Amino acid sequence: MQKWLMKNRNRLTAITGILIVLAFAAKWLFKSETAESGLLLAASLIGGFPIAASAWQALKVKVISIDLLVTLAILGAFVIQEFEESAIVAFFFLFGAYLEQRTLAKTRSAIKELVEMVPETALRQTADGDFEEVDLDDLDEGDILLVKTVGKIPVDGEVVSGSGTANEASITGESMPLGKKPGDPVYAGTILENGTIRIKAEKVGDETTFGKIIELVEEAQDSKSQAERLIDRFSKYYTPVVLLLAIIVGLISQDLELAVTILVLGCPGALVIGVPVSNVAGIGNGAKQGILFKGSEVITKFSKVDTIMFDKTGTLTYGDPRVSQVKKYGQGQLAEQLLVSVEKESAHPLAKAITGYYEDLEAKEVEASQVLQGGGIVAQVAGQQVLVGNRYLLDEYHVPVTKEMERDMEKLASAGNSLVLVAVNGQLELALGLKDEIRAGVKEDLAALKKLGVKNLLLLSGDNQKTVDLVAEELGLTEAYGQLLPEDKAKFVKKRQAAGEIVAFVGDGINDSPSLARADIGIAMGSGTDVAIETSNVVLMNGSFDRIPRALALAKATRRNMIENITIALAVVAVLLVSVLASSWMNMAIGMFVHEGSILVVILNAMRLLAYRSKLQKSRKLIENNFSQATGPYTKGIESIQ
Amino acid sequence: MKKAILQLETLACPTCMQKIAGAIANVDGVEKTSVKVLFNASKAKANFDPEKTNLDTITQAVKNIGYDVLKASAK
């Protein structure tokens, strides 16, 4: 019975609406009051029945629900023979619920799109080598599965045969497709853009990385902030209190109509649903961009952050040295070619950076080479003597150094560069400066964070103080500390919290779990590893730095949205209360209309968050779009996923 | 203890949550404090003792109060 009512609720709503229209037609066109009353009575009964049934179900599990208030209001209207009002109240209530359901589904759509990244079935190899389509739930570890071009990968596993390229944006946020060959890992929820592969399942269902992400987001959307828990508790008692109030008012004033009106006006609506819908929309928007918030508590706290700490220099820089400047003193080209030839033979970290910088140059054959400890390399290449190393090496071989060269070297060193000098046949030809460079865009992102109201930006690093100072100066960080151990960093977090600051700590989730856990907001960057997901409050799936200001902007927007919704809800309650006491036009039909209207307004307001893009993102998007036009359809598919 | 996960029809009213949570908690063998209804994901989760009850009983309890269960699994 209950099930039938649930299934046909929309139909009953429509019938109620049609009957009301017919009743008014009877009244205005045929002047038939009897027909009007009869039709309205029928409408009240048909509309009121599912509401009453629902109220009864709730009562059985000891819950006084809003349905009960409405049911009593309809019954009350029956008693005073106000069939018009009872019919309209029933209709508005049902129709409002229908609209709520439709719009709520929209606010949840972001997460639904994510869930659909995993296919429902997979092609599994049978004993005789064929492939059969099976339900995802029936898969086991060790199954061999076939994935074809543009197929969704169903499990976490390893490629056993075939090859192709996969787009793993849903897991890593990285939108460049990756090549997959036997032995490579593949992840559920990613897409094989082309090729055909067979994979061996290692993790299935909820155990996969993607499954865990989904679970995290689902739980986050339903986790409640303190404010919400308060509202929950409040509404638990609120409904019975309204019921009591209506009874008392009815008894004292002997005015049943007033009592019934209070029942309708007292329905908790926008207040109860306002905050959760903002939450769902904000978290959903984040999840689509690879920003996972663990619940509304996190959003609230993050939006008020004062201090952001970065765990290491490598978060702000590329983490390995790159060639930043080259000074040429001779003809150049040949010396560079000789340098590359020597460095190709070396395993030194600087050598890798240099060969990477000159990747177009062809190497010549190195005839002989010798390492001078603490100096560099002496080599014979194409009949020429080549020295590659530091100042000490040059002095050892009596290479002349002019004043100008001297000045260049000092300049490079004071800008934080390591020097690599190249001399050919006893003449200094090249001076290269190498350093760990600031990641592209980090400066703008930090400026954006300051604009969003973050007061302190701290770098806590294990590197030496000089390197740290240079980075801090270049980026405009407020403070920077070097030579710290992981436990020192956690102490820093503690100290700043004691000073009353709300502290966010950005780390990769591997060595910094104490700091991540201690900070008010632990932000794990880079990957969806289990550790990162567990110890942090915000997970940025994509390693790129611009997700931090994006996440903060989104948290602030979500918080603002919640406050707007609470304001709307309270204002509506206030207006209704004042008008029922002070005006003559307020009745239960209007009350129900305003009540349902305010619920829709807060849901629609929350839906704006789904489309929210920060300013920073808008300007970046423009650049990305131009890029995708230049590179053609290759990156097009990715745009649509993000 | 096993964990039951039920995928429900789309939930639209907060009272539904209370009703469903109540119905599941009333099944003998279900750990009452573990019952959790996720409103937005329209899912219900609960731990249960496989010696006292099973997934079908829990699913039926939800169906009895008028809500459809789209998918049920236990692990």
UniProtKB/TrEMBL annotation, chain B:
Gene3D superfamilies: 3.30.70.100
Listed GO MF terms: metal ion binding
Pfam families assigned: HMA
Keyword Metal-binding: yes
Record-annotated HMA domain positions: 2-70
Keyword Transmembrane helix: no
InterPro entries in the cross-refs: Heavy-metal-associated_CS, HMA_dom, HMA_dom_sf
Record keywords, A-Z: Metal-binding
Domain of life: Bacteria
Protein's name according to its UniProt entry: Copper chaperone
Designated gene of the protein: copZ
